[in-house]
Each structure stands twice: as C-alpha cells, then as structure tokens.
Amino acid sequence: MVSGWQQALTLIIVLIPGFVYQGVKRHRVGPSLEDQDLSIRLLRALVTSVIFLVVYAIALGDFLADRFLESDPQQRYDDVWAVGLIVGGLVFFIPAVAGHVSAAYLTRKRYFSSADSMTFWETVRTTAEPDDNELSWGRALFSRDTDYSPIPTAWDFATQDIPVGSFVRVLLPDDTWLGGQADRGSYFTSYPEPRDLYVDRAWQLDNDGVFVRELPGPTGIWIPCSDAKLLHVTPPAEGEDTDADEEGAERSSWRDWWIIAASVGVAIFVHRTRVSRILERRRQR
Fold first, then answer.
1. pTM (2 d.p.)
2. Do residues 64 and 89 lie in contact, with contact meaning Cβ atoms separated by under 8 Å?
C-alpha cells in the first residue's frame, strides 16, 4: 500500500518540475494570456513535467533504477545527502536552468528586428548586432536585459521611486487641487489596491495648483486618486535630502548584509547539529 509520504513525493515529482520551469521562464519574459487560467497552468505543468521525466528516463534510467529500485530497501534513503542532491537536481535545478535558457531564447528573439519571420534555428545561430540593440547569447543568458517589466500598472511605475521631499499635487474630478510634500512618512498604494496616497506634509494650493504655503503643525493629507484627472510630481531641488538618502541607503545595505550573515550562520549551526545527531544515532546502532 502506498503511504502518505510516497504520495506526496509522487506529486512533487510529477508537478513541481513543470511549475519551476514555468515560474523561471515567466519571471523573465512575463505571463501569457493562458496563465490567467489555473487549469491551463496545471495542465501545462503536468505536460512539462512528463517531458522532463521522459528525458530523465532516457538519460539516467539505469542510474535511477539502480539507486532507488534495485538497491537494498533499507539503504535507498540512508544517504540523506545523495537523495537530497538527486531530488533537488532533478526536481528543481535542471527545470530552473531549462526555464532560464528558454526565457533567454525568447528574450533574444524579441530583440531582433526581424523576429516575426525568424525560425528557431535562425534565432539560435544568428549573430547579434550590438549597434541594433540586439542581444548576444551571452547577454541573453547572463544579464537582466529584457523587454518585460513586472510592474503591473503605470501608477505603480510612477510612484515606486518618488524622491523624498518631492512636491505632489492631484487634480480631483471637481477641479480641486490637493497636495503637499512627500517626506519619509508618505505612502502610495500599489496594485491591486485602489489608487490613493498619503502625503505627510500637507500644503495649501490655489485654484491653479500653485503651492501657496505649508499648513501649520504636523499635518498629513490622504488623497483618493481613483478618479483623479492628474497626478503631478515635482522632485526636490538638486542636493536636497541627497545626503540623508545616501546615509539611509548605506545603513539599510549594512543591515541587510548582517541579516544575511546571521541567517547563514544559523543555518550552518542547525545543519551541523542535525548531522551530528544522525552520526551519533548511527554509531549507537
């Protein structure tokens, strides 16, 4: 009788390679229209996984059969490292590499001026012309060059990198202007939430949208923008808040590196502890 963990392992082997392949590929070239339908995505993942299994059976059939079928049942999974490397390579690493190469091919083809009329082998063999902004295989594989942007809407693109200290004004449907200065306490919503913003330093604007004066006291203003006619952002004068931004970015960078180093240290400690326990149990046997 098939146990629960064997069923889970079978599901992983059958579906995960296809999802890994599709995910890596979609991250580089973007989703297709069919990706919105979950049933199509599942079917495509299943078909892709079956293709991987066929390739594995042809290329590694004897090795896999000897490792998991013909060996002593008590020793099949005794070597945790070997099993982990085999499963990780077949289920995750190879599909990820295949997805990356497939995405590199599609990205390279899109950059050719005659992409619509090029066949598969023409795309593979054609030498890129840098002057025409075409991608070589090296750039396609090892750079982030792509014609796809993961940013979902123009609103997200316009509001994701607004400099600290920028002046923001919004023209509402009734031709009223609202706005202020976007300091570090300001916030802009992102997809899929409705478009609105919070400016932590509110200003008074006249009927023409000219900034008159900053409202007294610690004031902020929330502005709904779903039906707004216009959003206008004026960056701060050059040099203003630059030093503070650089200092904050440097602190953030050091903090990220410390978090990564601490995480790696904890992972190594936990792993060594588990290995020591496994070896101790084996010695006791």
1. 0.58
2. no
Domain borders along the chain are 4-142, 154-234
Fold of domain 154-234: SH3 type barrels. (2.30.30)
Rg (CA), the chain: 28
d(CA 226, CA 215): 25
**Cα–Cα distance list, 165 to 14, 223, 237, 251 (Å):** 52, 17, 9, 20
Identity of residue 141: L
> 237: burial class by Cβ within 10 Å (0-12, 13-18, 19+)?
exposed
Cα dihedral angle (79, 83, 84, 85), rounded to 10 degrees?
Answer: 110
Rounded CA gap, 108 and 149, in Å?
A: 16
Say if residues 212 and 205 touch (Cβ distance below 8 Å): yes
**Amino acid (1-letter code) at residue 159:** T
Q: Which amino acid is at 165?
A: G
| Contact between residue 195 and residue 225 where contact means Cβ atoms under 8 Å apart | yes
Is the omega angle on the peptide bond into residue 192 within 30 degrees of 0, that is, cis?
yes
Mean pLDDT of 192-218: 89
Report CA-CA distances (Å) from 60 to 95, 101, 106, 188. Answer: 15, 21, 28, 52
Tokens of 130: 């840098």
pLDDT at 71 over 70: no
Report, as an integer, the average pLDDT of 222-242: 81
Q: Give CA–CA dist 187/252, Å, rounded.
A: 19
Question: What's the pLDDT tens digit per position in 101-145?
Answer: 998 888 887 777 666 667 777 777 777 776 666 777 777 787 777
Taking the chain, what is the end-to-end CA distance rounded to the nearest angstrom?
Answer: 28
Which run of H or E residues covers position 260?
A: helix 242-284
